[in-house]
Every structure is written in C-alpha cells, then in structure tokens.
Write a structure and sequence with these properties.
Radius of gyration of chain A: 23 Å
CATH topology of chain C: Four Helix Bundle (Hemerythrin (Met), subunit A)
CATH architecture of chain C: Up-down Bundle
Structural class of chain A: mainly alpha
CATH architecture of chain A: Up-down Bundle
Largest sheet of chain A: none
Strand content of chain A: under 5%
Structural class of chain C: mainly alpha
CATH superfamily of chain A: Cytochrome c oxidase-like, subunit I domain
Largest sheet of chain C: none
Number of domains of chain C: 1
Distance between the termini of chain A: 40 Å
Shape of chain C: elongated
Order of helices and strands of chain C: HHHHHH
Radius of gyration of chain C: 21 Å
Number of domains of chain A: 1
Oligomer: heterotrimer
Helix content of chain C: over 70%
Number of helices of chain A: 16
Chains: A mainly alpha (544), B alpha+beta (339), C mainly alpha (219)
CATH class of chain A: Mainly Alpha
C-alpha cells in the first residue's frame, strides 16, 4: 500500500535535541548564542526600567519621585546593567557567537566548552548583580570613583564590583575564543583578506576584550579589598591616590566603548554591502580601521580626566591622541557612504537601521571631538552633553546596529521571516524616539546641567520633558520587536537559506543551520562580498 | 514662551567667549559633516534605489578618495586640537596677582574663605573684572567646582589642592554646581557666584570679617606650636618658612619638590612623607586635629611669609609640656561605615 | 589505575585534524597568558606609581620582608619549572612513570611554595604588618608603607591563587598521565600546562626583586 510521503522537517540546531539539559549543557555555538540572547534581553529590560525611572524623575525640577539615595542607585544600576550586562556582550555574544564559525566555514568555535563556560560565568555574574539590586543596589555611579565607593558609600559596593569582575571573565573568554577561532579555524581558501568585515570588527573587539578587561578586573578587586579591609590604595586619608583608580578604571573603560561599537560597525558593513549589492568600498582600509581603532583606543583613556587634576602635558598628549582615534571611525563612515554610490539599494529593515546608525554615529562621533578638545571639554565634562554624546554612539549607534543585525540574521537564526511592515514601523519609533530623547541633552549639557542630578534649576525643565517624551516613544520601538520576533517563531513565513541573496558563508547553509553548520566543509575561492556573481541573471533571488 | 526657555548659558567671563567661539566652530563642523553624510546617504538612497538602478557597479575603492577623507579630517582635527589646547593653557595658568579664594568642598556644601577673612557657604562673592584664583580641596570625596557661566570646571580632591581661575566680566548671579558625583545630595550641592561691581564688592568685603585669612593662620601657627621649631630669627628644629612658598625644596631622599599649597598642607598633616634635607623626622603629624579650614588659613599665612603679607613667626619661649615635640605613634585612620 | 596502555586521544569534531587541534590549544593558552599578564599588570602599575612617589616608605617596608624565605621560594619555583619541563620531555619520549613522578614533584614543590608563603604571611601578621585596622609600623612614612604592604599582599595573594590553580591543574595532568593518556603522539596538554606553570613562575621572578630586594638590608 502506498503511503503519502510526509515532508520531513530537516534537522537543525534548534530541533536536533530537546529538553532543558540539551540546552544547558550544549556546546553548540548557535545554541549558546541563543542562551545569551535570552539573558542579555532580560538585562536590557532591567536596565531600561531603570532608565525609565530616571527619565520620570527628571520630568520635574524637584527631586520628588523618589529619595535622593534611591535615585542615585537607579542611575548607577542603569549604567552597570546596560554597560556590562547588555552592551558589552550584545553583538559579540549573540551575533558573534552565532556567526563567527559560520562565516569562516568552521563547525564551531575553537573552544566550545569554554564558550559555554563563558555563558555560565555571565549568568553567575548576573545573579550576583541581581542579588545586589534586590538587596538595595549600589549608588556610586557605574564608574565607582574612589574614595566615594571605597570609604563613603553605604551600599553593596563589594557585591556590585564583584559581579562586574566576574562578568569580565565571560568577556575575556569570548574574546579569547574569537581570536583563536579566526586565526586557526578558517576554511580552506578563506584568507584574511576574504574575511567578511564583521569578522575583522569582532576580531579587533576581541583583542580589546582580552587586553583591557583584566585591568578592570584587578581594579575592581582592589576596590573590593580596600572596602573590606580599609587598606588605603585609593584613599588619600590613608596615603592612597584617588586618581590612580581613575587611571586604572579608564584604561579599561575607554577601550570598552570600542568593544561595544566595533562589532556594531561590523554589522553595518555586512548590511550596507548586502542592501547595496556591492562590495564595501575600500575593504582593506575598513579592515585596517578596525584594528587602528582597537590600538589607538588604548592610548586615550585620560581624556576622561582632563579636569580631574592631571598635568597639563598629560592632557595635551591625551587630547591629541583622542583626535587621532576619531579618524579611523570617520574613514569607515565615508566608506559605507561610498559603498552606496552606484549601488542597487533596497530599504528593508536592516538597511533602515544601518542608515540610521551611520547618521547618528556621525553625530555621536563628531560630538566626541568636542570632548577631545580641551577647551570645550572643561565646560561640558560631567554634564548632559557627555550623556548625549555617549548615548548617541551607544544607543543611536550600537543598539541600532544590534537591532539591524538581529533583523538581518533573524531568518538564518530562526528559519523564519519577521513581519517587515511592523519592523519598519518599529525602526521609525526608535529613530524618532531616540533623537527626541537625546538631542535636547546636548543643549542641556552646554547650558550646564550636570549629570547624575536628581533635581535641577527650573530653566532646564522644558528640555528634560522633551527628553522624557522621547524616551517613551523609544521604549515602544523596543517593545514591538520583542513581540513580533516571538510571533514570527510561530507564525512567520519560512525563510529559505538565503532570503536576502546575501554574500557570506553563513548564507550557504540551511536556515536554521544544522548543528555542525556545513554538511561539507566549504572551500573558498571567491572574494568577500561577491555580489556581482550573486546577482548574475541565473541566480533567482527569493522574494522576502 | 521662548524667553523662558534659555538654550544657552550666559557668558560672564573672559574665557567664556573664547570657549563659545570654539564651540560654535565645532557645532558648525559637526553640522557640516552630518548634513554632508545625511545628504549623500539620502541622495544615493534615492538615486540608486533598486527600481532605478537594478545592477550595482562594483567599485573596489579609491586611494585618492581615502587619502582625501583621511587627511582633511585630520587637518581639521589638528586645528581644533591646537585651538582647544591654547584655551586650556590659558585656563590652567592663572595670571599673576590674581585674587585668591580658598574653597573646601564637603558633602554637600561649599565653604569659601576669602583672603580678607570672610567666610561664605554656597555663595561666593567676587568682584567683576578681577582675576580670581580658586584654591580648593575636599574634606571627603571628590567634588567638582563648576560655574557654567564662566565655562570653568575643576575637580576638588581630598588630600590635595586643585585650582582654577576666572575673570568675571558681567555682574550678576550665576549657578555654581558640583559636577562630580559625590553621594546623596550631589544635586543639592549647588550655590551661586555673585559677581559685584567694584564698589559694591568693597562694601561687602569690608563687612563681616574678624581679620584676614593670613592673620587667622598666624594665630593657628602660634596655637599649634609651629613657631617653636619653625623660627625666622635663628635655625630651629624645623626649616625656616619665610620665603619658602613656591621655591624648590631638596628632600632627604634626594628628590626635589616645589613648595606649593599641596606640599604645605601635606607637610602639616603628614610630615613624614617628605622630609626636608638636613632635618630629622620629628615633626608631629596633625592629621585629624586641624580642619581643612584651619589648614587653609595656615597655608595662606605661610604663603605670605617673606612677601610682607604675613607677620614673621613670633619668637616664643621654650614650650610648656602641652604641645608634643616628638613624632606621634601612627594611629590607624579608620573612616566611615559601609562594607 | 590502568596499565600503561597508551590511549589514542579523540579528535574533537570541529577540528580537521590533530595538528589543528593541538595548535589551536597552544595558541589559546598563549592568549590566555596575555590576559594574565594584563591582570597582574594593573597591580604592577600601582606598585610602580607608589614606589616612584614614596621610595623611602617602600624601602622601609621591603626591609621587613623575609629575604631568606623569599629566596628559598624563588629557588623552589625555579626547580618546579625544571621538573615541569622534564615532565613534558618524558611525555614526549613515552616515559610514563617518569612523567608522573616529575609532575608529582612539580606539584609538591608548588605546595611547598604555598607553605613557605603561609609562614611568611603569619610572620607579617604577628609583626602587625598586615594592612587594615591592626596595622602598626614604626617608620618615617607608615601610611605609604601600609600601601607597600597592601600591594605586597595583593600581588603575592593573586600569585598564590594562581599557584593553587596551577597545582590543581598539575594534579589533573598527573592523574591523566598515570592513566597513560600522554605519549609521543599526544602530549600537548602537559606542554600547555607547562606554559601556564612557567608564566606563574615568571610572575614570581618579577615579584621577588620588586618586593624583597629594594634594600640591601633586611631586619
């Protein structure tokens, strides 16, 4: 008797094995990426909640929504959560973990078990951080300046600092894994100059992770020891120097911002190339610019300290170097723009995010020049100008790149298409809400409103109200994708292996990919971004 | 409505206008490049949209373009650097003969001490059209002295003096903010700088003081027994302080340091850290016994020695048993709570 | 405890061949050691800054180091690096028993180091040289000598923590060696374990002169 043939759902990394143990003990980089996705999204909402509380308080000039100590805890926890538990892992731990082996044609990262370990370390750090929050939080600011943090704060500084310390190791292991993988596990024919720029960017970020994070770790350890045993390394009353803390802290925390932005820049390169159907203009220089940013990024830390009491000569040197570090980023912006010249451009959601990134990162990056410039920095340091500057880069830049990347690779990750109309709408909310939130803060900052202020003179109110209004719009832009991404898992259209007809090895395997990525190890004998070949008439691009 | 919505701080100092000019140049540059990029993106997006341009033209790159858009921004950046650095030079080098005002920042207030002896809390009266140099320290954590109208800011550190200076040009009342997060009432650590016409300032200065800062310092110098060892009439157990301020000092380990305000302060509360060459480490340390305000008065007094602004140390008979003459045993300085 | 049957080691699925697996593991260990360098580097920087600013205080603190025990520990660690390297060599040349013995000696020397350190720490505690409320020091600049001791305990403490981890690692290697896992075809784990051990040794070689040998005289 004949039986109807049932179409068999192919085995992919999502359905290869079921059960909580298969996820919690997985060594598959793609599953680990998904574990990270869930955890960092959780912390994004925690950090976002604190942000909403800050903005609500700042609707009125008086500090009337919460007590001063509470407000100080809220902005501290916003900062620590967003920086260490969301931004630093975001693109590397989610998109990087997922894509690095696929993009180089490998079956997994070099050290899959260390990859899983790094997630557990992150979770342990996160649990300690949640414990800290629930038990009353920290109120030192995410920068933990001494002697406030070591000798004056009455909050849970030790557990807070230790949770960041532990999270640092997660970052270090991810970086280590990426560096070794990219060096040693490339498929035959995948030379350095054939690597997608996403990998160059993540490689540069990984180098920073590996070199910078240990310094933060030891600094936080000293803070914890000082607080526990009153040893005086940073306390002037005991002979220590609070500026030494600042130097050690910023030695990591400045390169950290490049850890945050470089992977985002890598995402933008991939998206702009795909939606312009062109190789990125000036590939070699964009790759080199990533490395230059990583190197120069280590040489500029004291631009956070121009008014802190450093010598004039130190200030001159760091100012000069800070101008230099802006140049490779400028080169990238010009190269992305030039890529669109004579391209063939489509405006799917990833491209909208990428275009938004380029515009907003330009503003954010140029406002960095204001800060590198000694004369102006004296005035705007520690004001809302700084807050606006780094949010333009972190949120207008990095988070938009992350969102763009999630949309771009969602079909590959989930095998489903997200609903394009809703996605475009969310992108609009994000763009509009973001600018309304943060542009007024440039004005506020130059006017002199200091950061970390709960109450402020009444003349600053209108701008603060605009900013809060923007924040609520921005929040909508972040809620919608959560909803429709989840919706798409169940009801989304099936994506094929390559719905965007994009270049890159990851698109040559199924969506979602099988556990071991490739049925046959690819042999690469084409250049990156071979869109001219992909767009030859015999290829039939799948409509999205 | 717009008059109630200021979008720019008042410019009330000599430096303010210079900073604002550079700021506007930066705004212009930012606007220029942003508009340039946005227009290019917009134009390319429209002109090369897929319907209009179905096939992309592969272009590897262009060294000429890369060099252009590397070198031009570099040149602009260097221009901004030099301009900003020159302003910073001026901002960090107070003119000679500036009027000096001492400030102590503490959680969560500002305490000011004028040379003529007035003390103020959270309000600082200064004359218009005079150079004013702030010499500041903190009693606890790091604060920062920020006057947006003057475009100046300097962190105020515990354990040393930092300084900044300004030259107010427009009488009025201006915000003073603490701009380094310092704990619970950080946003309450605010005040005013009151810039007064010369006549009004003289009037204000003449009232409400018991004597100049230096004369207070002289009293403290006697009270704490300093003049027993630091004599002007003959070489005592401690170095002669007349004319010391601002000069290099040779230390017993071979280093040379400049006797600035921070050196004087450290030498009072922790003399063992830097021992002048040829002297023994027998000075008692006064940490915890002298407040920052008294330290300031002592520093002001010692600065005036040899310049005619302070009376030389009075001769004193040999001490009674009250004042210590040997080094105190080191007490461990436990500070506040927290874990 | 199996007989000395050399076991073929399995190729992990994501590697093309054993060569790639081995080179990747070595490279990974080198990168990890770079991170460790940066980790200790922060403390070395703090040390350099304070020593430059307060040379006398550091000199006086260093006089109170027990140079005999410090020198002994240096010798112990250098010997342990020798035995570690010999263990690698024996694994390379299929001498299972000797491999185990050298690894064991390495671990014992490491433990001896920890023991000597414990004695030193105790001496400092008794002499009230441990920073904190109980600290008491007669000298020209006790505050900054306390910083010297803070850095001493932080640096040697961090080093000791790495030694403990190292001893655990050597124990693990020793047990595997006993089971016959390592031979001339496959000895990479011992080699990269050796890299870690040598690194920890080199850190001590820097710590010893910086902490113990500032002054000619010791009390």
């Amino acid at each position: 008797m004949a039986t109807a043939v049932q179409p068999v759902e192919p085995t992919n990394y999502l359905n290869a094995d079921y059960g909580i143990k298969s996820w919690l003990l997985t060594t598959d980089h793609k599953r680990i990426a998904m574990l990270y996705l869930i955890s960092i999204t959780f912390f994004f909402w925690i950090g976002g909640l604190f942000a909403m509380l800050v903005r609500l308080e700042l609707l009125t000039p008086a500090g009337d929504l919460m007590q001063a100590d509470t407000y100080n805890k809220v902005f501290t926890m916003h900062g620590v959560t967003m920086v260490f538990f969301f931004l630093i892992p975001s693109v590397p731990a989610v998109l990087g973990n997922f894509l690095v082996p696929l993009m180089i044609g490998a079956k997994d990262l070099a050290f899959p078990r260390i990859n899983l370990l790094s997630w557990y370390i992150y979770v342990a750090a996160g649990c300690l951080w949640l414990y800290t929050i629930v038990n009353g939080g920290v109120d030192t600011g995410w920068t933990f300046y001494t002697p406030l943090s070591t000798a004056f704060s009455n909050t849970h500084v030790i557990t807070g600092a230790l949770s960041v310390f532990i999270a640092g190791f997660s970052s270090i292991f991810t970086g280590l894994n990426f560096i070794v993988t990219i060096h040693r596990m490339r498929a035959p024919g995948m030379t350095w100059q054939r690597l997608p720029l996403f990998l160059w960017a993540n490689y540069a970020a990984a180098v920073i992770m590996v070199l910078g994070t240990p310094v933060l770790a030891v600094t936080l350890l000293l803070v914890a020891l000082e607080r526990a045993f009153n040893i005086g390394v940073f306390n002037p009353q005991l002979g220590g120097d609070p500026l030494l803390f600042q130097h050690l802290f910023w030695f990591y925390s400045h390169p950290a911002v490049y850890i945050m932005i470089l992977p985002g820049m890598g995402v933008i390169s991939e998206i702009v190339a795909c939606f312009s159907r062109k190789r990125i203009f000036g590939y070699n220089l964009v790759a080199l610019a990533s490395i230059a940013i990583a190197v120069l990024g280590f040489l500029v830390w004291a631009h956070h300290m121009f008014v802190a009491g450093i010598s004039l000569y130190a200030a001159l040197v760091f100012s000069l170097l800070s101008f230099f570090v802006a140049i490779p980023s400028a080169i990238k912006v010009f190269n992305w723009t030039a890529t669109m010249y004579k391209g063939s451009i489509r405006f799917d959601t990833p491209m909208l995010y990428a275009l938004g990134f380029i515009g907003l990162f330009t503003i954010g990056g140029l406002t960095g020049l204001f800060l590198a410039c000694l004369g102006v920095d004296v005035h705007v340091h520690d004001t809302y100008f700084i807050i606006a500057h780094f949010h333009y880069i972190m949120v207008g830049g990095m988070v938009m790149a992350y969102m763009g990347g999630l949309h771009f690779w969602w079909p590959k990750i989930s095998g489903k298409l997200y609903p394009e109309a809703w996605a475009k709408l969310s992108a609009m909310f994000v763009f509009f809400g973001f600018n309304l939130t943060f542009f007024p803060q440039f004005v506020l900052g130059y006017m002199g409103m200091p950061r970390r202020y709960q109450s402020y003179p009444p003349e600053f109110q209108v701008l603060n109200v605009l900013s809060t209004a923007g924040a609520s719009i921005l929040a909508v832009g972040y809620v919608l994708p959560m909803i429709y991404f989840l919706w798409s898992l169940r009801y989304g259209q099936n994506a094929g292996p390559n719905p965007w007809n994009a270049a890159g090895l990851e698109w040559k395997t199924a969506s979602p990919p099988p556990t071991f990525n490739f049925d046959v190890t690819p042999v690469v004998n084409w250049e990156a971004y071979n869109y001219d070949e992909l767009d030859k008439p015999q290829e039939v691009p799948l409509a999205s | 409505m717009w008059s109630n919505l200021p979008l720019f701080p008042p410019a009330a100092s000599k430096m303010a206008h210079q900073v604002d000019h550079l700021y506007f140049f930066l705004v212009g540059t930012t606007a220029f490049f942003t508009i340039l990029i946005v227009c290019l993106l917009g134009f390319f997006a429209w002109r090369y949209r897929r319907k209009k341009n179905p096939v992309a033209t592969q272009i590897e790159g262009s060294m000429a373009l890369e060099l252009t858009w590397t070198l031009i921004p570099t040149v602009i950046a260097m221009f901004i650097f030099v301009w900003g650095a020159s302003i910073y030079f001026a901002e960090t080098r107070p003119p000679r003969n500036a009027m000096e005002v001492y400030a102590v920042g503490k959680q969560w207030m500002w305490k000011f001490q004028h040379q003529q002896g007035q003390r103020e809390i959270n309000v600082l009266h200064v004359p218009v059209d005079r150079d004013v140099r702030m010499i500041m320290t903190s009693q606890d954590v790091i604060h920062s002295f920020f006057v947006p109208a003057f475009r100046i800011k300097a962190d105020v550190l515990p354990g040393r003096y930092t300084s900044t200076w300004f030259h107010a040009t427009v009488p009025g009342r201006y915000h003073l903010f603490c701009s380094q997060y310092c704990g619970t009432q950080h946003s309450g650590m605010i005040g005013e700088v009151v810039v007064m016409e010369p006549a009004a300032y003289e009037q204000w200065a003449a009232s409400g003081s018991d004597g100049s800062l230096a004369s207070e310092g002289e009293k403290a110098f006697m009270q704490y027994g300093c003049s027993m060892c630091h004599r002007a009439d003959y070489q005592g157990r401690g170095p002669n302080l007349v004319g010391l301020f601002g000069k290099p000092v040779l230390l017993d380990d071979g280093r040379t340091v400049i006797a600035d305000e921070s050196y004087l302060r450290e030498s009072i509360i922790y003399p063992g850290a830097k021992i002048a060459s040829g002297f023994k480490n027998i000075m008692p340390n006064f940490q915890g016994q002298i407040s920052e305000e008294e330290l300031i008065s002592l520093v002001a007094y010692i600065k005036g020695l040899g310049t005619g602004q302070s009376n030389p140390p009075a001769t004193m008979a040999e001490p009674t048993a009250v004042y210590p003459v040997g080094p105190q045993p080191e007490k461990s300085q436990a500070t506040s709570s927290g874990k | 405890m199996q007989a000395s049957q050399t076991a073929a080691h399995e190729l992990r699925h994501h590697f093309a061949d054993m060569d790639q697996q081995r080179e990747t593991a070595s490279f990974g260990m080198w990168i990890f050691l770079v991170t460790e360098l940066m980790f200790f580097g922060g403390l070395f920087l703090a040390y350099l800054v304070y020593r430059f600013l307060y040379p006398t205080a550091f000199l006086e603190g260093s006089r109170h180091m027990n140079i005999n025990l410090g020198a002994l520990n240096t010798a112990v660690l250098i010997c342990s690096s020798l035995t570690m390297v010999l263990a690698v060599r024996c694994a390379k040349t299929n001498q299972r028993k000797l491999t185990v013995i050298f690894l064991l000696v390495t671990m014992l020397l490491g433990l001896a180091f920890m023991g000597v350190k414990a004695i030193e720490y105790h001496e400092h505690w008794v002499a009230r040289e441990v920073p904190g409320p109980a600290f008491q020091f007669e000298g020209t600049d006790p505050r900054h000598t306390q910083i010297f001791f803070s850095l001493y305990f932080a640096m040697t403490g961090l080093h000791a923590l790495h030694m403990i981890i190292g001893c655990g690692m050597v124990l693990f290697l020793m047990m595997n060696a006993w089971r016959g896992l390592y031979n001339s075809e496959y000895y990479n784990p011992i080699e990269i374990g050796g890299l870690y051990w040598h690194f920890v040794d080199i850190v001590w070689i820097w710590l010893f002169p910086l902490l113990y040998l500032i002054s000619h005289q010791h009390v």
